[in-house]
Amino acid sequence: MTVKIGYLGPKGTFTKLAVDAAFNGEDKQAFDTIPACIDAIDGDEIDIGVVPLENSIEGTVHLTVDYLVHQVRLPIVAEIVVPIQQHLLVRPDFSGDLEEIKEIHSHRQAIAQCHQYIHEYMPKASIHYTSSTGKAAEIVSTRNTSIAAIGNKLAAAEFGLSIYRDNIHDYPNNHTRFAVLTKDKHNIHIHHEVNAEKTSLLITLPSDYAGALHQVLSAFAWRKMNLSKIESRPMKTGLGNYFFIVDVNQPYDDVLFPSVKAELEALGCSVTILGTYPVYQLNI
């Protein structure tokens, strides 16, 4: 049976690059938004979904995290890390200078990754946010020549655009983490070397009191469990109410994690395992 894989589309997005690099031969379907892709997994329209989770320059993709926490709980079963190269894309018939570009279209994260370049070379261009870098390329391909998109080489090829300036992101070490989501982890067949193992936890505190976060972190520290990330996000129940996403650099086991969970629950915290999964670092 063919496995159906959904991703943030349209064609030409970095998510599509990650999907093509990680999976071979499967049926691949693009979705206009991250929630639409996640909903399709939940509704059994597709077997696997791949959505952006975090960028090394701009941080967490909050829409992904918040939707997984507040709307649809699906386990993270793998993580794909790929290098990101942002290019300025124009129609082939554009022959002007940078200052002649009146509009720049791209995803909010891509715009932020190139903020300094835009500020220095195209300060008068208006910014237009799109649902993805691929969508930005699609828009530019159908409009007049005085607009540009920020995206990758795949987007340029898919929509017949030219790379006017390459590698315009502000920092060279630009990578994005993509979460692989599915109801059945047996659907996952990524034929690449595993670079690491990780476990992600959702932790909520009983109330905001002095030393609460210190007590949470101490439960990991004295067990010598290395945390690669801890981030707070609003519970959306009122000011000052937050949950924490914690990434632990080891797979779930039957000793350390249950004891951490028991210790935190004794403090009144709620602990949910969002996923324990392999990490694949791909060079594309």
TrEMBL record:
<dbReference type="InterPro" id="IPR001086">
    <property type="entry name" value="Preph_deHydtase"/>
</dbReference>
<dbReference type="InterPro" id="IPR018528">
    <property type="entry name" value="Preph_deHydtase_CS"/>
</dbReference>
<keyword id="KW-0028">Amino-acid biosynthesis</keyword>
<dbReference type="GO" id="GO:0009094">
    <property type="term" value="P:L-phenylalanine biosynthetic process"/>
</dbReference>
<keyword id="KW-0057">Aromatic amino acid biosynthesis</keyword>
<dbReference type="Pfam" id="PF00800">
    <property type="entry name" value="PDT"/>
</dbReference>
<keyword id="KW-0456">Lyase</keyword>
<comment type="pathway">
    <text>Amino-acid biosynthesis; L-phenylalanine biosynthesis; phenylpyruvate from prephenate: step 1/1.</text>
</comment>
<dbReference type="InterPro" id="IPR008242">
    <property type="entry name" value="Chor_mutase/pphenate_deHydtase"/>
</dbReference>
<dbReference type="InterPro" id="IPR045865">
    <property type="entry name" value="ACT-like_dom_sf"/>
</dbReference>
<dbReference type="GO" id="GO:0005737">
    <property type="term" value="C:cytoplasm"/>
</dbReference>
<keyword id="KW-0584">Phenylalanine biosynthesis</keyword>
<feature type="site" description="Essential for prephenate dehydratase activity">
    <location>
        <position position="176"/>
    </location>
</feature>
<dbReference type="InterPro" id="IPR002912">
    <property type="entry name" value="ACT_dom"/>
</dbReference>
<feature type="domain" description="Prephenate dehydratase">
    <location>
        <begin position="4"/>
        <end position="183"/>
    </location>
</feature>
<dbReference type="GO" id="GO:0004664">
    <property type="term" value="F:prephenate dehydratase activity"/>
</dbReference>
<protein>
    <recommendedName>
        <fullName>Prephenate dehydratase</fullName>
        <ecNumber>4.2.1.51</ecNumber>
    </recommendedName>
</protein>
<feature type="domain" description="ACT">
    <location>
        <begin position="201"/>
        <end position="278"/>
    </location>
</feature>
